[in-house]
C-alpha cells in the first residue's frame, strides 16, 4: 500500500503542480472501492442528506449521522485522507460548540480533518478548531447550508464585488489556519485567481480546471441518478443502467425458478435422516462431513 495521504501530502501536491483527486463516500464499501481506485481524499459530505437520505437539502443532516457515516468510511479507507463535513448548526452557534463537534468527528468518526462552509465570519471558529489540533478544510462559493440566504443553488462570485469578497474570504480562511479550500459553483476565472493567491490547495466542484484538485459526489460521477444532470457533473459510468439491468436479470431468474441453481445451493451432510417425505439423503458428491463455509455474508469476506 502506498503511504497514507495527509494534509501535508496535499500541500506538496499543490507545490509540485499535481492535481488532487477528491470524491465523496458515505459507507465502507464505496470508501474501499474509491480508495483502491486512487482517491487522495474521501469526503464524507453532508450531501448524504440528499443522495443517501432522499432529503431536498443538506439542512436536516445531524451530527450523529455524520459521525456514523464517517466511521464507516474511515473503516473502508486505507490510503486516502478522510474529511468529515460539519453539518448545519454544528459549528455556527459558537467556536466552543464547533470544537466539540469537530472533536466528535475525529474521535468517534475517525476522520483526519473536518470541513465547514463559510468565509471570514468563521475565521475565529477555524482558528479554534485548528488550535485543538484538528485540521480544517474551508468551503466557499455555493455553500449548500446557506441555500435560503443564497435564494437557491446558484453560482456565486459573478460580479466584481462578490468576487472580491470571496477572494478576501479565502485569504481570511488561509490566515486562520485552514489547510485547503473547496470552491463550489464559482466562475473559473475567479477560481483561478483564488488558487493563485493561496498557498493552500483549492479543490473545485463546478469551479473550472484551474483549481489544485477536483471533487464530485460519487453517485453523480457514477451516473446513479439519470434525472440529475447539472452542468458541472460529468458521468464517468452508468451505474443506474447497470444496476437496473442486473436487478432485472435477478428478478427474471427468481421468477423463472432458475436462481438459485445447484452452484448457489448448499448440500446436507451425507447419510443424515431428514423429516418425511424424503427419508435419507443419498450420498451426494461434494457434501462434506465438516462444517461447510458459506464464504462470506453481505459482501464481507470471512
Ligand atoms: O457535501 C458535499 O458532498 C460537499 C461537496 C460536494 C464539496 O460539500
Please characterize this protein's 3D structure.
- The protein is an alpha/beta fold.
- The protein has one domain: TIM Barrel (Alpha-Beta Barrel).
- Helices cover 37% and strands 12% of the residues.
- It is built from 11 helices and 8 strands.
- It has an 8-stranded parallel β-barrel with strand order 1-2-3-4-5-6-7-8, surrounded by 7 helices.
- The longest helix has 18 residues.
- The protein is elongated.
- The relative contact order is 0.10.
- The structure holds 3-methyl-2-oxobutanoic acid.
- 3-methyl-2-oxobutanoic acid (KIV) binds next to strand 6.
Largest sheet: 8 strands, parallel, barrel
CATH superfamily caption: Phosphoenolpyruvate-binding domains
Number of helices: 11
* Contiguous uncertain segments of 5+ residues: none
Number of strands: 8
What's the architecture in CATH terms?
Alpha-Beta Barrel
Query: Could you say what the CATH topology is called?
Result: TIM Barrel
The string of secondary-structure elements, in order, is: HEHEHHEHEHEHHEHEEHH
The percent range for strand residues is 5-15%
Determine the N-to-C terminus distance: 22 Å
Numbering strands along the chain, what is their spatial order in the largest sheet? 1-2-3-4-5-6-7-8
Q: What are the bound molecules?
A: 3-methyl-2-oxobutanoic acid
Shape: elongated
GO molecular function: 3-methyl-2-oxobutanoate hydroxymethyltransferase activity; magnesium ion binding; methyltransferase activity
Cofactor: Mg(2+)
Subunit structure: Homodecamer; pentamer of dimers.
Function: Catalyzes the reversible reaction in which hydroxymethyl group from 5,10-methylenetetrahydrofolate is transferred onto alpha-ketoisovalerate to form ketopantoate.
Amino acid at each position: 500500500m502506498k503511504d497514507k495521504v495527509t494534509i501535508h501530502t496535499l500541500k506538496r501536491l499543490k507545490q509540485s503542480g499535481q492535481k488532487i483527486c477528491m470524491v465523496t463516500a458515505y459507507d465502507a464499501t464505496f470508501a474501499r472501492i474509491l480508495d483502491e481506485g486512487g482517491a487522495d481524499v474521501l469526503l464524507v459530505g453532508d450531501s448524504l442528506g440528499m443522495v443517501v437520505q432522499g432529503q431536498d437539502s443538506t439542512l436536516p443532516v445531524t451530527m450523529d449521522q455524520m459521525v456514523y457515516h464517517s466511521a464507516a468510511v474511515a473503516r473502508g479507507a486505507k490510503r486516502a485522507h478522510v474529511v468529515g463535513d460539519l453539518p448545519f448548526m454544528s459549528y455556527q452557534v459558537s467556536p466552543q460548540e464547533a470544537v466539540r463537534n469537530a472533536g466528535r468527528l475525529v474521535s468517534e468518526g475517525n476522520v483526519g480533518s473536518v470541513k465547514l462552509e463559510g468565509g471570514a465570519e468563521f475565521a475565529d471558529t477555524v482558528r479554534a478548531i485548528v488550535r485543538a489540533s484538528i485540521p480544517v478544510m474551508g468551503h466557499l462559493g455555493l455553500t449548500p447550508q446557506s441555500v435560503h440566504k443564497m435564494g437557491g443553488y446558484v453560482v456565486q462570485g459573478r460580479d466584481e464585488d462578490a468576487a472580491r469578497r470571496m477572494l478576501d474570504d479565502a485569504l481570511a480562511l488561509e490566515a486562520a489556519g485552514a489547510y485547503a479550500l473547496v470552491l463550489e459553483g464559482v466562475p473559473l476565472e475567479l477560481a483561478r485567481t483564488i488558487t493563485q493567491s493561496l498557498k493552500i490547495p483549492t479543490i473545485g466542484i463546478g469551479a473550472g480546471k484551474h483549481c489544485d484538485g477536483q471533487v464530485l459526489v460519487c453517485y453523480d460521477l457514477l451516473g446513479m441518478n439519470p434525472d440529475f444532470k447539472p452542468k458541472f457533473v460529468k458521468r464517468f459510468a452508468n451505474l443506474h443502467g447497470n444496476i437496473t439491468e442486473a436487478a432485472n436479470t435477478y428478478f427474471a431468474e427468481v421468477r423463472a425458478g432458475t436462481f438459485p441453481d445447484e452452484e448457489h445451493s448448499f448440500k446436507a451432510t451425507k447419510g443424515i435422516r431428514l423429516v418425511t417425505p424424503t427419508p435419507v439423503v443419498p450420498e451426494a458428491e461434494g457434501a462434506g462431513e465438516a462444517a461447510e463455509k458459506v464464504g462470506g455474508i453481505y459482501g464481507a469476506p470471512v
